Amino acid sequence: MSALGEGPSDTIHADSEITNHEPVDCSKTIDSVKTSLKVIKENQNKGTKDGFVTKQFQDAALLLNECISLITKTESSSEKSNMLRQLIQHSEEYQTVEIYCKICADILETGEGFGYPRINTEYIKPLLTMFEFLVHCSSVSEKLSGVISRDKSFLIKATKELEDWKDYHRCENDRKLKEEGENIVEMICRLLHNISMYVGNVPNIRGANCIGAMKPFLESENNIIRLLCLATLADLVEESESGTLESKSDSIKDLMSIISNVIEGGSYGDCSLKEIARIIQQVGKNDSNKRFVVQHGAIPLLVKITEDGNIEEQREVVYAIWGLSFDNKTKMINNKEWKVISTLERLSNSSDKKVKLLSMKALWTISDYQNRGIEQKDKETGGVNRHILISHNWGNQPVIKQIYDGLKKNCINVWMHVHNIQGATVEAMSDDVDQADIVLVCHSYKYMNSYNCRAETEYAHQTGKKILILKMESGYEADGWLEPIIGNNLQIDFSGKDPLEKTVNEVIGAIQQELNRKNGAVVDVSKPIIQSDHEPALPGMADENANRTNGIDSAMNWTLPQVEKWLYDKILRKDMFLSTQRQLKTLRGKDIAFLKLLVHECPTSFYQTIREQLGMKDIQSMSDFRFAIENIDTTVIDTDLHSSSKQFTSTSTRTVETTKVRLTV
Asked: Which residues, other chains included, contact 375 with Cβ-Cβ below 8 Å and sequence gap of 6+?
């Protein structure tokens, strides 16, 4: 599964091929799981004289793994998903992952200090049994994988075990020693491979020096270990560190050769087709690898898997093709022998919703959406649906929500995905960008690694949308595909350097300036828009707010003659358009009070309203009205209209219409 929660599947990592077997009794299986977990918890501190675990502990651990094997082979996807959810829930309840990590770390430590890396024979079986469970859990649950990644002691000792075996994994003198080492190394590599797929775990794994420990195994004679290490390193190595993997092209070429032989031979051993597709996707995650992965034949291998693969394998394949397509669009379109387009078109009609959605997104990315976007810019989309689009990753949701609320409070029409963008259709993603006046790119490490975020942002960039950059993560500098998009665009720091209120106000101010520029208005947006409840008021602010409130209260109570007197004294001019005069004369005191409130709460909407609904399009009319609104105070207006009315022809009777104000930007 993808580290961003947007990957194609959420099932056990190393699925076995489904074979004929008796139907699984779900209730009985889950009861066995609960019983096993309970026994493990009760015996966690009851090590024997000769070992770290009791016989009851080991028997329960073996039974637990047998139950997981049954679950993974369940043919009914709904029953399988339900049992997996219960497995995760009960594992959390009994803290099984925490217990296993502690005991495994203690066992691994016993190998230190020997002339050669070796764990006592009686410890090997329980160690591998626990590793098997951790591998399963780290595949099906991001939360449980996070528990493993946060156990610093376990990670350090697992890494140390890899370092100890870096030379002995080639040992020919002691066959048993080599076999023991390969079993342990493979399990550790599988586990690191699984937890590294979740982006939130990567800093913890890097902190344990896993990169340095795994690099020597790229030359292992064990193909599975080589595949796992290459895929894991692809997840751990950042774009700026692309030179970390020496002879990268050769390593990827070897990887594709191994995968080709495995697929052609039809014997996958412990590595399923789903896992093979996932490894290709991981290795191709870094842009610096994508060209090599495609160059050495990944696409035909992936297409071949879709021909005979099951639904879960197809999910992984389409996700891998989508990732590789960002830098290989032309090749995928022009090379007809690869059958990429026809394969994706076929899978876009799949009965499986995930396969269908991922196929459509891949087709959208591969197609020339730059030209399509330029055409869209020329279309009349109408003002009613225009908005500010917040493009974000789900991991920054709390801060994003505060930005969203701040924009809403200032009458700015804003749109964001309230659910994870992974479920958004192609039409929804493109429409969101097409209707946007400005796109806020809220970037982070997770954002950079999200295919959905990349597709949305690159589309906005290539269709010429105004982009504001919001930095959401301290210590992360945008690289890879994000770097050229950020370029010279304005960047506002939300990583905690400044108070949140200050940075939200910066965003609102920048948006208002851009909208005012587009609308041809000049507005002062230098005043704070959002103030912290804990922040003391600035000197004079209380008086200013009081005067503003008094002016609004006063205007609210104006009679129609008072409104007319105010208009004649402050606004109306002989050279003003008659249509504007007629619109102004329909205003009530309540309308003027509302406009005074609007000019401070949402200046963009204020200027749009007087321009579109009151007909004020020249600077003189707009400035007269703006300053007249600003200077409304508590003075009672004289209702003797004789001196003023001589300047204009007015009727003795008039029809008063309510001004309808529509708040849009």
From this structure: none
Let me know: does 630 contact 599? Beta carbons within 8 Å.
yes
What are phi and psi for residue 245, nearest 5 degrees?
-90, 95
**Using CA atoms, how far apart are residues 485 and 501, in angstroms rounded to an integer?**
26
Average pLDDT over residues 345-353: 91
Tens digits of residue pLDDT in 414-424 = 888 754 455 56
The DSSP 8-state label assigned to residue 491 in this structure reads E
Torsion, Cα 123 129 133 135, to 10 degrees, reads 80
Decide: residue 228, CB within 10 A, 0-12 exposed, 13-18 middle, 19+ buried: buried
Amino acid 446 reads: K
Q: What are phi and psi of 441, to 5 degrees?
A: -95, 105
Question: Can you give the CATH number for the domain in which 275 is found?
Answer: 1.25.10.10
Nearest to 84 by CA among 98, 96, 67: 67
| pTM as predicted | 0.63
For residues 430-451, give the mean pLDDT. Answer: 88
Structural domain including 331 reads 247-367
Residue for token digits 């704070």? 528
- CATH number, residue 63: 1.25.10
- 407-446 in b/e form (b: 16+ CB < 10 A) is beebbbbbbbbeeebbebebeebbbbbbbbbbbbbbbbbb
Are 423 and 361 in contact, with CB atoms under 8 Å apart? no
Of 122, 123, 115, 129, the residue nearest 164 (C-alpha): 115
Domain annotation covers residue 530: no
Confidence of residue 12 (pLDDT cuts 50, 70, 90): very low
pLDDT digits (tens, 9 = 90+) for 49-73: 777 899 999 999 999 999 998 998 8
User: Greater confidence, 200 or 176?
Assistant: 200
What are the structure tokens assigned to 576, written together? 């003003």
